[in-house]
Each structure stands twice: as structure tokens, then as C-alpha cells.
Please model this.
Amino acid sequence: MATYDVLGATYARTRQPDPRIAAQIHAALGDATDVVNVGAGSGSYEPPETVLAVEPSRVMITQRPTGAAPAVQAVAEHLPLRDGAADAVMALLTVHHWTDLAAGIRELRRVARRRIVILTWEQRIFRERFWLVRDYLPQAAAYDDTRAIPTDQLIDLLGGGRQEPVRIPHDCVDGFGAAYWRRPHAYLDPHVRAGISMLAQTGDDALAPGLTRLADDVRTGRWHTRYAELRTLETVDVGYRLLVTDR
Model:
């Protein structure tokens, strides 16, 4: 994907797998003996059973760690794999980037023998519960409105399945959108924003007024007063969901 050939250049700096989220993903994969990771990026959350990563961006592939599963440059809509090629297929925070969602889901169903695991988010919940987009950066939420896929729609395309809330720890080490929900100063760092597609693709010019207000609120302590309750929480549910479908 050309987008990540640009946005992904420094991705691995702030996007490291969080062990608590990894544990939930690996539990969802169950006892799969071989796993294909679609939209694999730099390889976060791949279990030891991963046999192949599929990723459209060469820039992202080059950031995969030494010893990671082999990777092929391809798109979800046309997986270079035979029918039933793997026990399980996973697709983590990627379906919103696909150009043809239905085709990509059909490919996951074709390749997976037993299970499909998708990590995504419910945009309605994200908008309502996450203070950053609700109160400071509605432009970023508006951008995600154009690409976020309702989880019920995904479940329908998958042919059924279950949803699990993915609660975000306050010290999450994977710097995706809501990872810094208790660390507001992080969103003022351009390196952090560069690893969050909804912010990077909205652009700093559009975000500037909200970022200025956030910086002022952090500096004066207003943020900490306004969101004092958050400082008592260890995890939050802001809409991230793990979808699990058995074939």
C-alpha cells in the first residue's frame, strides 16, 4: 500500500507489540498449528506458529525483525495462497485500509481452514468514549468515519463469529490510536502521531488548533482536572474489538 510506503518509514519506533494484547490475540488463535498474518506490517503480534506474512508495503516489510516469518508483498484481496493453506488467518488493525473489503474477507475465508481472527474497532464507541477525538481532534474522527467498518458488518461478511472487547492498558507499549489515553503529552509528539494513521493522514495543519488546546490544557493542568477519573483506571474499553470466526 503506497500510504504505508510513506507513513510506515518510522513505524517500528512507536508500534511495538503490547504483551497483554498479544496474550488475548494468541488465545483467540487457539491451538492453530500454522498462522498466516494478512496486512502484517512490521510483524507485531505474530505467534511462533506464523508461517507467512502478507503485506503490501515494502517499507513495512523491511522493518520486520530478524527471525520473523517470511513475508510476501501482496494485498489481502489477492492472497498468493492455495485454498485452506493455514489453520488460522489473522488480520490486525488492517481491514480499514483494504480497497475491497468483501474481496479481502472472501480471501481470508478461502485460506483459513479453521479460524479467522481480526482486530479492529467500533467507530461509534471510539468517538463517544475516547477524549482525544471527542474533545480535541474531531477532524481525526471524521477521517476515520470514512474508513471504519462496523463490527456487525464484518461479522456478517465472515459468516458469523464472536466479538471480544480489547481493553487498552494505561501503559500500552503499542502506540496505536488510543494507546496513550492516560498520557496526553504523547499526542503532542510528532513521532508518536506519525505512527497513528488517523492522525498522520489527517495532517498536522488540520490538527493544529486541537493540538494547541491540548498542549495548553496539559501545561496548565486543566487536562488532569477534567479527566481525573481516567487517572484512577488501569484499562479502558474505547471500542477495540477482536472478532473470532470458526470455519
Remarks:
- The radius of gyration is 18 Å.
